[in-house]
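Before the break, one more example. Copy the sequence into your notebook; we will annotate it together after we see the structure.
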Amino acid sequence: MSGAKRILPLLAALCFALFLLYGVYFNAFGANAESMMAFFDITESRQGFVMTIQSLGGIVMTVLLGLFGERLHKLYGLLAGAVLVGVAGVTIGTMPLYGNDSYGLLLVFALIGGVGYITIDLLMNGVIADVFPEKKSTLLPIVHGFYGLGAMLAPLLVTWLTDSGRPATFAVPYLVLGAAALVLGAVFWAVSRRATPHTPYADMTALRDRSVANPAEIFRDKRAWLYLLCCFLYLCFQNGIAVWLPNYYKTVHHMAGGAANAMLTLFFLGALVVRMLSPLVYKRMPVRTFYLLTCFLSAGVFAVLLLTPSLAVQRVLLVLLGLLQGAEVPALVILCCETFPTRTASASSIIVLGVSLSALIAPTVLGRLIEQVGYGIPLWGLTACLPLSAAVLLAIRRDAPARA
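Here is what the structure looks like once it is written out:
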């Protein structure tokens, strides 16, 4: 037991570090969009297509892990995800060596990264539920809080490591992130080997025997598809913000690159605070109520942001928006896992599939719309996604079976 007390906290810390890295990697694409478009000489829609390709790999992995993830040693699955993100980061980070006509290679490397970070995203929820079941409601929001910290740091890292006057420097953040992922993966491998005897993965035969029947069982339940739609609508908003908000401020408000990226940092700063505090919030308010309330309030705050001309007011509103938005994904994961408690990997896959589908569709569609009509209509469309997501969650409540 003393061994478990020593190694499991270290394992939890490494899980936090993995999600921190994931948050930086994923959100660096939005903060780095201007430099990437300049280096490869591409339009907004082709930049958005990079996210689409990443998401294609993510969708395939989400389906596979949703069906068969319960049979895997999830700690080693997380290790594989870290290695793939590391490979993607290093290869994207060396792209200036191939010249600016290597957009096709960028798509290949982005696909590898998409498979890697979705593997981390999906299996992490299952690891927390499996290894720390009594602390799940506390640790899960904290893990996602570290994603929020990574998302907040991404624009700062990009601003620090790139030079808008030298587009080739877009690659530097990815090289740093790739190297960090490989080092973290090596440490995670060593700790996972020591931690395995103290986890449910010590007896993989029994684990696989319990999960072999009906791997697609969860997807036969209508509520699973409603959760998918709910998450998709919400993540269309968040992915749209993460990818295009810096460019919105550069284009519409004529802000410099660092200042525009800082606007996105303000949003993720608010999100980080509420993710870390969400375990306390969930003790005072039902998770479902929290999600519904914050969706409607977020739509109102973002509408005011689009209407006000004052940048000072917009900065305050972005922090407030982050505070309202920061715990939405953990809330959906908790709700879905509570609905399907014996299928944590499959339940998590529903939410992650929503993440992947939104990343597949939203950045490219928004990029095309921005090219055609500017930022106004696309951003108002994103605003509408929030109350629609809340409406779908209300439908899940009506559809759920009666409880004693």
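DSSP finds 15 helices and no strands in the chain. The mean pLDDT is 84. Try to locate both features in your own notes.
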